[in-house]
Amino acid sequence: MRVETVRVIAAREYLARIRTKGFWIATVGLPVLMAAVLVLPALLLTQTTSAHKMVIVDTTGGIGAELAARLSDSPELRRVTEKLEETLEGVDTAAIERKLQGFVPILEPPSLDLPGQRAELDRRVLAGEIDAWVWISEQGLAEDRIEYHAESVSNFVTQERLARAASSTIRSLRLVAAGLDPEEIERLGRSIDLTTLRVTAEGSREEQAATGVVLAYVLFFLLYIAILVYGQQVMLGVIEEKSSRIVEVIVATTRPTELMMGKLLGICCVALTQLAIWLGTIVVLTLPGVVARMRWLSDQFDVPTLAPSLIVHFFAFFVLGFVLFSSFYGSVGAAFNNIQEAQQFASVGAIFAVAPMLLFWMVLNDPDSMLSVVSSLIPFFTPLLMLLRLAVKTPPWWQVALGYLLTILVTGAMIWVAGRVYRVGILMYGKKPSLPEIWRWIRYA
Amino acid sequence: MPSPSVELSGVSKSYGRFRAVDDLSLRVNGGAIFGLLGPNGAGKTTSIRMIMDIIAPDRGEVRFFDRPRRQKDLARVGYLPEERGLYPKMTVADHLVFLGRLRGMSRREAVAATRLWLARVGLAKWSAKKVEELSKGMQQKVQLVGTVLHEPRILILDEPFSGLDPINQELFKELLAEYRSGGRTVIFSTHIMEQAEKLCDEICLISGGRAILSGSLSEIKRRHGGNAYRLVATGELDRATEIAGVESSIQQDGSLKLLLAPEIEGADVLRDLVGFLSVQEFRSEEPSLEEIFIRSVRDAG
Fold first, then answer.
1. A233 part of contact set with chain B, CB < 8 Å
2. Which residue in B80, B83, B147, B157 has the most chain A C-beta atoms within 10 A of its own C-beta, making it the best mutation to test that interface?
3. CA distance readout (Å), A36 to A41, A42, A45, A305, B243
4. Residues of B at the A interface (Cβ-Cβ below 8 Å)?
5. Residues of A with CB below 8 A from B52's CB?
C-alpha cells in the first residue's frame, strides 16, 4: 500500500465532505441546540405567561385558604428565587418568580346557588378568564378527592403539583385536627435527600447521581450517532462511486485496498473534526465560570466536567468502532448497485450497533454485573459499552485492555474480509449478488 | 527509453465454469494503434482489465516495456474504462488535479497540465464549474483529459467511441494519431469493425475468449482477400449461391457480393454465372473486416 496514494484519496474525501453545507449545519447546529437547551428555559421564563389562573372554591371552609397559600409559596420556589437573585443582578426577579410558581390561586367563597356557581365557573374557563377551577367538598374529602376543572386536563405536571400541594395541606390539617402541633408536623414530614459520592482512585468526591448519568448519556449517544452516521456515509460514498462509474478510472492506478483505506481515513478525519468541535463545545460549556452563570437554571444537578482520560478513550473507541462498522458498510456498498439493495444488508450491521442501546440502562445501573462485563467485551459492543462503563465507574484495567485487544483483532479481520468483498464488488455491475456469491468473493478474491 | 510495448502471453481467466479469456497471447509495439476486436462478451474488457492489473489472470503473464509488469508501470499508462464517470460534485479542475496526482504527478505538475489541456479542448472557462453542471459531451472531454493528463506512453481505451458525439470522436481520433506519430502505443477495444478498419494498424479478433485472428490489418486483408467478388448483373440472382464454390452472397448497393471458398478461382465461377445471368461487372474485391471476422468465427466454431 502506498502512503501517498492513500493520502491523496483521503484528502479528496475530506475536502469534498468538509465543503458541504450539510456538514456545517450539523456541526454548528448541535452545539447551538445544546446551548439552546440550557439558555432557552431562562428566556422562556422571562417571556411567557404560563401562570395558571385557578379559582378555588371550598365548600367545607378552612382548606381553600391553606391550599392557596401553599400554592403561592413553596420552599423549592424560594430556593430558586434566591439563586436567581445571586446570578442575575438587575433582573426583575419578582416577575420571574410569579411565573415560576405556576399558580395564581383565587379564593372564592361558595355561593348559595352551588350549581349556578359551577356553571358560571365553567363559563369563565371557556371565556378564557381563568384557566381552571378547583372544587373542594365534604363529599369529595370523604372519598379523598377534590375536583379539578379545566379546558385541557393533559397538563400532568401542573396537576401533579396541585395534587401534592392539596395532599400535604389536607394531611397537615387532619393532623392538626388530631391534636398535633403544626411545627411538629412540618419537622416530622420532611423528606430525605441522598448525598451521592463517587469513589475513585483519587479519592471520593461529591457528585450527584444525575451528573454521571447525563455525562455517560451524552458521550454514549455522540459515539453511537457518529459511528452509525459515518458508517453509512462510507456506504453511500462507495455506492456513489460505483453508480457514477468513477471507480474503475481510479483503480486503474490505485489498488482497491488503497482506495478503501483512503476513503475510511478521509471520512474518519471528517468525523473527528466534527466530534472535536462538539466535545470542545461541551468542555467550554462546562468550564467553571460558564457553569456558575448557568447554575441557577437547574438546581437538580451539578454540571459534570469531562476527564481528559475519558476524552482519549472516547476518540480511541470512536476510531475503532468507526473502522469496524464502516469497513463492513463499505463492503456492503461495493457489493450492491444501489441504496435500496444495500439497505437491506446494512440493517444487519445496524443490529450490532443498536444492541448496545438496549443494554444501556442495564450497564448504567450496574456497570460491574456479569452481563455488563461480558457484553462490553463483545467487540461490536465494546466501543459503546466500554465507554459507558468508563464514564460511570472505572472498570478493572485488564477489562479495558482486553476490550481494546479483542476489538482491534476483530476490526483487523473485518478489514480483511471487507477488502476482499470490496475488490470484487466495486467492478460488478448489474445483477444483485447472492450471499453464496459474496462468500465466493471472500474465498477466492 | 524502452519501447512502450504491451505483451500478453498465454493469459486465461475463468469465472466459475465460464471461460472469459482462454490462452490469449498478443504483442503491441510502440508507434502503433492496436485494435482489440470482437462482439460483446468476447472477453475484451476482461483482457484489458488484466492488462491493467485490475483483475488477476488465472494463468499467463502480462509484460510492459519488454519486461514483466510492475505496479509503477501503470502510472505510465492512460486508461479509459468502458464504465467511466466522474465525481459529479467536484469542480473540473479539482477533479483533473486529483486524477493527475493519483497517476503520480506532483500538485504543481497536475495543476499546470490541467490548465494546458482544458485550454486545448476548449473547457478553460469551465474549470471552476462542478462536473454535474457540464453537458455530457463536455464530461466526455474531461474524461479524455483525465486519461492523458499525465502524458502516458501507453494508452488503453475500452470502447472509447461508445456514446461519443461526433466532435469528441474527432478529438479522440486526432489524439490517437498524435500518439502513434509520437512513437507511443495505443490499444483500444471496439465491437464496431468499420471503426477499427479505419484506425488500426494491427488488430486481434477475439471471440469466446480466444484469439481467432491477429496481425497487421493490411496483411490480414491480403491473406483473406481474393475470395470475394463483386457482381453486377441482371437475371436470377438468387441462383448465384447454387454454384459450386460460392459460400454466400450478400446484397449490397444494388450489387451482389459473393464469398468464394479459398480454393475456388473467380474465373470458374464467372463461367457458370454467365450461363444464366447477364453480367455487367465481375471483379475481385477486398473483404471488409466484418466479413473476415464473420467467416473466421464460423470456421473456428
1. no
2. B83
3. 8, 10, 14, 19, 95
4. 49, 52, 54-55, 74-75, 77, 79-81, 83-90, 94, 98-99, 101-104, 143, 146
5. 252
A434 touches chain B (CB under 8 A): no
In this predicted model, what pLDDT tens digit does every residue of A194-240 receive, in sequence order?
A: 776 766 665 555 555 556 677 788 888 889 989 989 999 999 999 98
Report the run of H or E that residue B9 belongs to, with start and end.
Answer: strand B6-15
CATH class of the domain at A49-189: alpha beta
Identify all chain B residues contacting A16, using CB atoms and an 8 Å cutoff. 87, 89-90
Of the two residues A208 and A377, the one the predictor is more confident about is: A377
Task: Compute the nearest-CA separation of B216 from chain A (Å).
Answer: 28
Residue from the list B55, B74, B89 with its beta carbon closest to the beta carbon of A16: B89
**B254: phi > 0 → left, psi -120 to 50 → alpha, else beta; which?**
left
R_g over Cα of chain A: 30
Residues of chain A with CATH 3.40.190: 49-189
Lowest mean pLDDT among A151-165, A190-204, A306-320: A190-204
Contact of A202 with A208, CB cutoff 8 Å: no
Helix H or strand E encompassing B301: none
Angle of helix A63-72 versus helix A156-177 axis, rounded to 10:
130
Spatial strand order of the sheet with B202-207 comes to B77-80, B154-158, B185-190, B32-37, B202-207, B210-216
- Residue A161 has a CB neighbour count (10 Å cut-off) of 17
What is d(CA A257, CA A9) in angstroms, rounded to the nearest whole number?
A: 11
pLDDT of residue B16: 78
Q: In order along chain B (301 residues), what is the average pLDDT of each group of 10 residues?
A: 86 88 91 90 91 90 91 90 90 96 94 95 94 93 94 93 88 91 92 86 90 86 75 83 81 79 82 86 81 78 62
Residue A381 φ then ψ, to 5° = -100, -20
Q: What is the pLDDT of residues A271-287, one digit of tens each?
A: 999 999 888 887 777 76
Mean pLDDT across A415-443 = 83
- The chain A residue lying nearest B94, using CA atoms, is A12
Query: Is the pTM here over 0.90, yes or no?
Result: no
CA pair distance B207, B36, nearest whole angstrom: 11
The answer to whether residues B206 and B19 touch, using CB atoms and an 8 Å cutoff, is no
Phi, psi of A303 (to 5 degrees): -75, 130
Taking an 8 Å cut-off on Cβ atoms, the answer to whether B104 and A253 are in contact is yes
